[in-house]
Amino acid sequence: MSVAWLVRALVGLLPALCFLGALLLLDSYKLVRLRMVVAMIVAGGALAGMCYLINLAVINTGQVDFENYSRFGAPLVEESIKSVVVLVLIRTRRIGFLVDASVLGYAVGAGFATVENLYYLSTLTDPHMAVWIVRGFGTAILHGGVQAIFAALVLANADQRDGKLDARSILPPLALAVVIHSAFNQFVLPPIQETLLVLASIPPLMLWVFMRSEKGVRGWIGSGFDADTELIELLDSGSFSESHAGKYLFALRERFPGEVVADLLCYLRLYVELALRAKGILMMREHGIETVISDDVREKLEEMRYLERSIGPTALRTLQPLMPMSRRDLWQLYMLGS
Predict the structure, then answer these.
(1) From CA 269, how far away is CA 263, in angstroms rounded?
(2) How many degrees, rounded to 5, is the angle at CA 17 between CA 12 and CA 20?
(3) pLDDT tens digits for 287-338?
(4) What is the rounded average pLDDT of the residues 80-90?
(5) Burial (CB count within 10 angstroms: exposed 0-12, middle 13-18, buried 19+), residue 103
(6) Which of 157, 158, 183, 264 has the smallest count of CB within 10 Å of its CB?
(7) Where are the domains of the chain?
(8) pLDDT for the residue numbered 328
(9) What pLDDT, in 10s, does the model give residues 177-186?
(10) Residue 208: CA count within 13 A, CB half-sphere
(11) What is the 3-state secondary structure (H, E, C) of the chain?
(12) Distance between CA 153 and CA 169 in Å, rounded?
């Protein structure tokens, strides 16, 4: 291993990963855990290998010109396959805000770019240093940034559609990701100038998303904390049965057995207690205080899962008027259990 090879490796691999580290430091609420970021880097690297095999198979058919395929076909294949990981994270409520969407989307793209650049390091023989500057500061940042943009836009679309993750939420951001990637591969500008354009656009855009999302998190915590506190105080008071919520809950005895209604009341209390705990943890993280999720929280989560199985989905849906069940509200329970 020569010094020149090591320098090329550092220039090709470090910029994207260093920027990812900077994003983690900017996440004041620590919405994304390091192990999740590492998992996304690994997933992105695995997808790079998959895309290599697909691209190679298409090119080897002889029906596609390599240059045209690299400009139009490869961006479509690569962005479509990378997007699957982000969509799974959103669908399974592992992403709650634009901050963690951007970080995890970027991590997938950074992992993809890392494996791609490792491949070129092993196959290219003594390329000019400018090649690695373009690949490290241009192509790698582009892979991460485009996937971060896709993740943020899909999440924003889903929020506007009451959490629905359908074609209308996914296809426009995916088309934008493919267009940006394809435009970079056209090399209309000299490679160094394209690299400067990437550096001048993607990092500032992601920083702007971070600032907007931090305000959103702060507002959600504040309003949600007040609402959860009001409900838990009502549950603890002796007048709950006389409140609108209490009358609604006890009216369900006409539709469900008494033990199911009792389980619904227990479930509601557990949900509100855990929601308050989750928001409290985020508030402490904002001030740099890291907290350990205690065993009693995990016991309550397990009790909630037991009640969900016991109550059944039909009866659970009747609680929606009493407690928030948005994507973010469900995400906070995942955060406690992770």
Answers:
(1) 10
(2) 145
(3) 777 777 777 888 888 888 898 888 888 888 888 777 766 677 777 777 776 6
(4) 95
(5) buried
(6) 183
(7) 3-213, 237-337
(8) 73
(9) 999 999 999 8
(10) 8
(11) CCHHHHHHHHHHHHHHHHHHHHHHHHCCCCCCCHHHHHHHHHHHHHHHHHHHHHHHHHHHCCCCCHHHHHHHHHHHHHHHHHHHHHHHHHHCCCCCCHHHHHHHHHHHHHHHHHHHHHHHHHHCCCCCHHHHHHHHHHHHHHHHHHHHHHHHHHHHHHHHCCCCCCHHHHHHHHHHHHHHHHHHHCCCCCHHHHHHHHHHHHHHHHHHHHHHHHHHHHHHHHHHHHHHHHHHHHHHCCCHHHCHHHHHHHHHHHCCCHHHHHHHHHHHHHHHHHHHHHHHHHHHHHCCCCCCCCHHHHHHHHHHHHHHHHHCHHHHHCCCCCCCCCHHHHHHHHHHHC
(12) 8
In this predicted structure, what is the pLDDT of residue 324?
67
Give the whole-angstrom CA distance, residue 130 versus residue 34.
32
d(CA 78, CA 51): 6
More confident residue, 285 or 102: 102
107 or 285: which carries more pLDDT confidence?
Answer: 107
**In Å, how far from its chain's centre is CA 56?**
30
Q: What mean pLDDT comes out for the span 72-77?
A: 94
Contact 173, 146 (CB under 8 A): no
